[in-house]
Design a protein that fits this description.
The protein contains one helix and 22 strands. The longest helix is centred in the N-terminal third of the chain and has 15 residues. A hairpin with a 4-residue loop joins strand 4 and strand 5. The radius of gyration is 17 Å and the shape is globular. It is mostly beta strands.
């Protein structure tokens, strides 16, 4: 009941909002702005061609075979559930919607995609199924199959990070706890960190908002600010110590780094950041935002 209640509340907020995806740039992930010539979203519910969509959100990007692949949630009006779709781009700025590639009889979102041992994997949110599932592609970019259950319980937005030695998994548990696990491989076995839960009872920093990012010698963690409303802003933290016995982080002065604009496509909320490229010319990133949603599930 805890898992279902937490999931239902999160999805209810999605039906109130119409989410879209845009491309931002800047000198760092902490000072991103819309690309001047491209202030409108690159993907909206109207971009989706293979179902009636209420929202597109939670972008994750993989560069492969000479182009960028973006995987993201599509909120399907007919099924009433989130499904996983992808789009492609040659430069990371202009995107073309392709198709939905993963459907389940439960809600899916937050499709973190990564490579491991020459194969492509995905950890989408599967909280409505009561577990964190790992998927592997049988024919990239489609053909996904579940290969492991990493954690069991009401976990949301499980976010994988590899520090060169260990794998770390940050996940929201319920509505206001951040749990941390570690393992020697993405398949596990996963061990709960002794500091877990991190920040219990705090909705302003416990829900992950995209991958952890290495930037100028620091490890950055992003979190959704869920107070007073879902997707209020995106907060940034510097992880100062991460090992099997300790965890320390500090919120940065630039935080929040993204927040509702009060007008236009992201008037009501912003809650996700994915770095596409980062080099001497700056950072290119995919973000999402929401305005009022005019549709409801059928």
């Amino acid at each position: 009941m805890i898992a279902r209640a937490a999931t239902d509340q999160s999805i209810a907020w999605q039906w109130r909002y119409r989410w879209s995806i845009a491309i931002y740039h800047g000198q760092s992930p902490l000072d991103l702005m819309p690309i001047p010539a491209q202030r409108r979203p690159v993907l909206t519910p109207r971009s989706v061609t293979d179902c009636r969509a209420a929202a597109v959100a939670d972008p994750f990007v993989l560069y492969r075979d000479g182009q960028f692949y973006m995987f993201f949630e599509v909120l399907n009006i007919t099924s009433g559930r989130g499904e996983i779709a992808f789009a492609t781009s040659a430069d990371g700025r202009d995107w073309t919607y392709r198709q939905i590639v993963l459907r389940e009889p439960f809600h899916l979102s937050y499709p973190q995609i990564f490579t491991w041992q020459d194969a492509v994997y995905m950890i989408p949110e599967t909280r409505q199924a009561g577990e964190v599932r790992l998927y592997r592609t049988t024919g990239f970019p489609s053909g996904w199959e579940p290969v492991a259950s990493l954690l069991r319980g009401p976990y949301a937005d499980a976010t994988l990070h590899h520090d060169g030695q260990l794998y770390w998994l940050f996940s929201q548990y319920g509505l206001d706890e951040l749990h941390l696990h570690f393992a020697e491989s993405p398949i596990g076995p996963w061990h709960q960190h002794p500091y877990s839960p991190l920040w219990p009872g705090n909705r302003r920093r416990t829900r992950p908002a995209g991958r952890l990012v290495q930037h100028r010698g620091s490890l950055l963690r992003f979190a959704q600010d869920g107070w007073p409303n879902y997707g209020t802003a995106l907060r940034a933290f510097r992880v100062d110590r991460l090992d099997t016995c300790h965890f320390d982080e500090e919120e940065l002065p630039q935080s929040p780094v993204l927040q509702a604009s009060r007008e236009g496509w992201n008037a009501l909320a912003m809650h996700h950041l994915e770095v596409i490229t980062s080099d001497s010319s700056g950072v290119l990133a995919a973000v999402d935002g929401a305005t009022i949603g005019p549709v409801a599930p059928l």
